[in-house]
């Protein structure tokens, strides 16, 4: 199976124009987690028109298209794209801007979906490979774990895969520049909440009260010691406070009965993740006990760390190098502090996740902001990358 360049894909101007129209149409009609009905209809109809066997309903709105190569082979690989949008009001001013108030494709999932559809079409036209490709279109990446739900609904039972691959755009990287790394690449993303409960009381008579503000303050100040004293120096981890709530603004003379502190915890290894949860609870209880305050920890494990497997990273690097040139590929990139639910798939199947530059420059609007827009110039690059992954794995 020959290697494909973006120039080869872009030379088919009618094909690129059609994909761009699809991308911009999906952008006009954003659908948030588990509500991607219109988007999944577009995806399923597209794959069915290519003659693929299409399965719907995993994760509610998930779609899987199956393409068998013309050469004999038992190997099966999965290629995954996410479909959902975010609850953000768009301010790009683009002619194809969101027509749904308060929702937009602010992370480029419209582009991810389009690139994989394009690769599906090209591969279906000439399935010159040995084995099977599962095209996985996933709902609800943004916070609700659509990958986990698809797996729980039987994704890898119905469609067993030997390898699985994922892609995300990166607007802070030059167009087409690819980065990845073996091992931990993106962090676990957990949410924690500590509730400090006392009696509260009159601000002028604190001796008659049990005051939860003191242990809450000591707890917040102590959080930094988790990273400096309990996490190995060569391991990355983050604990941040994002919300503090207590009392009433109009009652500064009242000691509140309850203080709530919420935040995020990020880590790259399961052992460090365990340490963060244990230590947040221990510090909260340790601060509360001397003041007769009850401290309750609620720790929610959302997305696990995204851990690429070395063999599949090597394959992805070869595919990326064939696509954009080895000089534009970073095979040992720095770890990323964000989280991604493709990590659930990598817990079940070996695979690799890469980020490809969206080419908007260092001053570009970042993902999850009202001015973000996927760069359509990335479409032929993404299509070529996916085709080269298939060539490297099944060629």
List keywords for this structure.
Alpha-Beta Plaits, single chain, 4-stranded antiparallel sheet, 395 residues, 8-stranded mixed sheet, 2 domains, alpha/beta, Aminopeptidase
Give an overview of the whole structure.
By secondary structure, this protein is α/β, with parallel strands linked by helices. It folds into two domains: 6-185 and 305-394, 3-Layer(aba) Sandwich (Aminopeptidase), CATH 3.40.630; 188-303, Alpha-Beta Plaits (2-Layer Sandwich), CATH 3.30.70.360. It contains twelve helices and 16 strands. α2 (13-28) runs antiparallel to α4, α4 crosses α12 and α7 (213-222) runs antiparallel to α9. The longest helix has 19 residues, at 270-288. The chain is elongated and about 80 Å long. The N and C termini lie close together (5 Å).
Low-confidence residue ranges: none
Shape: elongated
User: What is the makeup of the main sheet?
Assistant: 8 strands, mixed
Helix share bin: 25-40%
Helix-strand pattern, N to C? HHHEEEHEHHEEEEEHHEEEHEEHEHEH
Strand order of the largest sheet: 1-2-4-3-5-16-6-15
Q: How many individual β-strands? A: 16
Proportion of residues in β-strands: 25-35%
Indicate the CATH topology of the largest domain. Answer: Aminopeptidase
